[in-house]
Amino acid sequence: MKISSKKIIPLFILSLLGSGSGEKDPDESDLVFFAGYPISFENQKNCTAAFIANKQGIGFITSAQCCVKNNCNFFPNQSADNVYAIEDDGNVTLIGAVYDMMFGNNGLDYVFVTSILIDWDNIPYTTGLTSDNDTISELYPITSYLTLNETGHKVCTYGAKNGYLCGLLQAINVEITVPNPWNGSLTNLSVNEVYFFGEKEFENEDIGGPVYIQIDNNGTTIAQALGHITQTGHRHFYYTPIEKVLSAGIIELTTSQQDNATDVTEVKTLEWNDTLNIMDSKNKVGRPNYIYAGSRIYVQISNTQSSFSCTAGFPVIKPNGIKGILTAGHCVYKNNDPDVYTIVDGKLEDIGDATKVAVGDRDGNEYAFIELHTWIWGDPTACAVKPDRNGILQFVPITSLYTPKLGERVCGFGSFNGYICGKIVAVDVTAEFTRSEGLPNYVAKSLYKVDTGKKGFGEGDSGGPIFTSEGL
């Protein structure tokens, strides 16, 4: 869903909440409050609201560093900090007061603000992608919270000052030292670290903003809460994990009930049985088949106009419903801005982001998952490619997974050297690989070794699909 203002007509409220009589004057505007909303403590210190939650009453979570008074003046028989919503026209409205807070205890940084809204609705949505002219923002329903136990995931967030940004989770359970905002003493916090894509970065007004993972659920973007912004820096930020806040504060996250995303990992299969000429075929939304197993892809090298060329592997669907393609991990490893491009209708187009990368991890994995912008380009085409007798490339439907045996013949396709076949001469191979630009060597395990004779794959073919007549 998209919004053009914090003031939204009743029809929009009804579509979000599924409630109300519909008898209001259509010219009358309601106000809604959600994660990403600009707020001000004591009308002095501006921050960003995180997720809607419940602690003996509805309210929301944000950072304790937004407090103006010492510990938000959260003391017995004292009046705690009041919190205001900053509206589009710059006016402020009292929306609540601090009800609970922690700063430094168990490494935590949060406040829970109890809502006193009467004419406003708290909705379990977060602000997301904003249009180029900053007039329209998308709202994503929060369906649950998530604990990330490994790095490499794509993470998105929203700050009231600098808007929507995404990056890669770089570190988990990092201890940082920050100055206490009230007396300057040093305080230790336990946080996760995210590096941004691009040059944009956050400022103080963005502190407290929601951090989440986006999921494509059958064409609808939903979000899983991760935490809120605790500290900002040059091209990175730290966030406090929400599961720690909910547990310590005995707080319940408010969620929107949505249809669950698929819980089955599967290879996307074709809806037709015959091979098709690549140049003539279209996908379901009428666009050219922009990506398939064997497409040439370009991965942007951070802070440059250069790119690294590789080949797309097979299209897959993750357990949470996100659709993408696989490729080789070394194609994107160590890139801080892993946007992925391919040629569509003769133009170089941004088709996705590398959100999960493994290059010689402890299990010997070597792969990258590229999350595709399916809302722009549609689904990937569930095919590999091979030439027919006349040398014209044809789509070959992907029908199943197959584990080949020693001595069997397999074929592959690289976007530079094309279609090459060979014989498996070794299985379960462990090999060490060297890299350029001073990067360390890495070890990959459980590999197949294929003898292709005089013809072989080369630079730019990495990540390409391997298949047989039995399956991929």
UniProtKB/TrEMBL annotation:
Residues 1-22 form the signal peptide. InterPro entries: Peptidase_S1_PA, Peptidase_S1_PA_chymotrypsin. Keywords: Signal. The keyword Signal applies. It comes from the Eukaryota. This is 43556_t:CDS:1.
